[in-house]
Design a protein that fits this description.
By secondary structure, the chain is mainly α. Helices cover 71% and strands 0% of the residues. The longest helix is centred in the middle third of the chain and has 34 residues. The N terminus is likely disordered.
Length: 475
């Protein structure tokens, strides 16, 4: 890479290559911060934590804390790459540059599939939550939500940012409210749980590791699923108004977000209500409100988890269109996906992805409430692939930058490359745990099948478009 190329990349003067790649920079600091916060709070926390608490007890707090540290290492690695070159569709871009064109091809299509699958899962979850208030067929709610979010993503990136801002605001407010209520119960003693609430619940109900360290390790896949989508900040890089200022601030909030929304919330809930009273399949937030005798809390939490699901689906539609356009720009996807509307949105890419998400409407029609556990497991393994690529690319980038082959990033990951190697080892351990867990093992069977499909597709691409298959952008 020449110095001229580097300069063009960083000042955005290279049209489709640099800067926003034709996108409008419509996401401000307020929206980026909330997207970053919201990306770390989803149904994995609001619902998945119930099953994890049942397995691990209070030690789940430690699992979230350690996994949160790993997520911070991943996000700082991503931040270093983003400050080197902030681009939309960053994961596949960096994979192409630092690993190879096939890695970029696999990463782009896998991350696209991750969000399509996640969108199907989340819109179904949202439809299920609607039955709490109204007895209407789930498929109708799923269809309405899909159409509304699809329309919002086509209007402008600014509207997407506003929706995500308010979705995230609801989630953040709910968790902070829960923490304050629990703190009040522990100190003042009001509600039905006031007489029994004590932090001693964290070690008096069979100890901190009531089911052993092994059971805690087996919850890591659930824990990591809860953190999926935190990397979405990287996809917004091409549409951030001031990425070199906004993105580092958003990434540096990761530690306190995890400390408050995961570790803090679990400490409070498990101090007010003993872990033995939580059951899998039931939101620990709903269960905690019921134990406190605050019946209205169930309705409030149901609204919160509804917004969490819609937030995830909204993010999915946003990212899938950008990933398809990035693949198409590099000759690794249909050229028709390169087109943008006057508002700077990838119309056809978003439409194609939303159409596939309508599969969720069909599933809600033929089998409401079933067959989604395996889909979620596959979403986890495909989402972690993006994290692996981020870490590998950051390690290779840092090595090249230290040799003077590339410019140094203005936002270096602390402790790298050792922290990146540690995060990689942790992810590999989680994959091993998924292989041991019979319920999640099917996702590991699906992953090679998906890899084989991509391998065949890449060979076809090489035969029809050798230039696109060999294209390593800006390498």
């Amino acid at each position: 890479m020449t110095s001229v190329q580097v300069d063009k990349q960083h000042d955005g003067t290279d049209g489709a290559v640099g800067g926003g790649e034709g996108y409008q920079r419509g996401l401000g600091a307020r929206q980026i911060q909330m997207i970053a916060i919201g990306g770390a709070i989803g149904t994995g926390l609001f619902l998945g934590a119930g099953k994890a608490i049942h397995k691990a007890g209070p030690s789940l707090i430690l699992a979230y804390a350690i996994a949160g540290l790993v997520i911070f290492f991943i996000m700082r690695a991503l931040g270093e790459l983003l400050m080197y070159r902030p681009v939309s569709g960053s994961f596949s871009e960096y994979a192409r540059e630092f690993v190879g064109p096939f890695a970029g091809f696999v990463t782009g299509w896998t991350y696209w599939l991750f969000w399509v699958v996640t969108g199907i899962t989340e819109v179904t979850a949202a439809a299920t939550y609607m039955t709490y208030w109204w007895d209407i067929p789930q498929w109708i709610s799923a269809l309405v939500f899909t159409v509304i979010l699809y329309g919002a993503n086509l209007i402008s990136v600014k509207l997407f940012g506003e929706l995500e801002f308010w979705f995230s605001m609801v989630k953040v407010t709910a968790i902070i409210g829960m923490i304050l209520i629990c703190a009040g119960i522990l100190t003042v003693g009001f509600s039905d749980a006031g007489d029994t609430a004590t932090v001693a619940h964290l070690w008096n109900q069979g100890g901190f590791f009531p089911n052993g360290v092994g059971s805690t390790l087996m919850t890591l896949q659930i824990v990591m699923f809860a953190f999926l989508a935190v990397e979405l900040v990287g996809v917004t890089a091409g549409e951030s108004k001031d990425p070199k200022t906004v993105l580092p601030k958003a990434i540096n909030t990761v530690p306190w977000r995890i400390a408050v929304f995961y570790v803090g919330a679990l400490i409070m809930i498990l101090s007010v209500v003993p872990w033995t009273e939580f059951q899998p399949g039931v939101s620990p937030f709903v269960a905690a409100f019921e134990k406190m005798g605050l019946g209205v809390g169930a309705a409030i939490v149901n609204f919160v988890v509804l917004t969490a699901a819609l937030s995830s689906c909204n993010s999915g539609m946003y990212s899938t269109g950008r990933m398809l356009r990035d693949l198409a720009l590099n000759g690794q996807g249909p050229k028709v996906f390169t087109k943008l509307t006057k508002n700077g949105t990838p119309l056809l890419g978003t439409t194609f992805s939303a159409a596939l998400m309508l599969v969720g409407v069909w599933i809600n029609y033929v089998a409401p409430g079933k067959a989604f556990e395996y889909v979620v497991s596959f979403a986890t393994i495909s989402g972690m692939w993006a994290w692996i690529m981020i870490l590998v690319c950051q390690i290779r980038y840092r090595a090249k930058a230290n040799r003077g082959e590339l410019p140094q990033s203005a936002f270096k990951a602390p402790g790298a490359p050792y922290t990146s190697w540690f995060a990689l080892a942790f992810i590999i351990m989680v994959v091993v745990m998924m292989g041991i867990d019979e319920g999640a093992r099917v996702s590991l069977y699906c992953a090679p099948a998906w890899g084989l499909l991509l391998g065949v597709a890449y060979l076809v691409l090489k035969s029809r478009n050798p230039e696109g298959a060999a294209f390593a952008k800006r390498s």
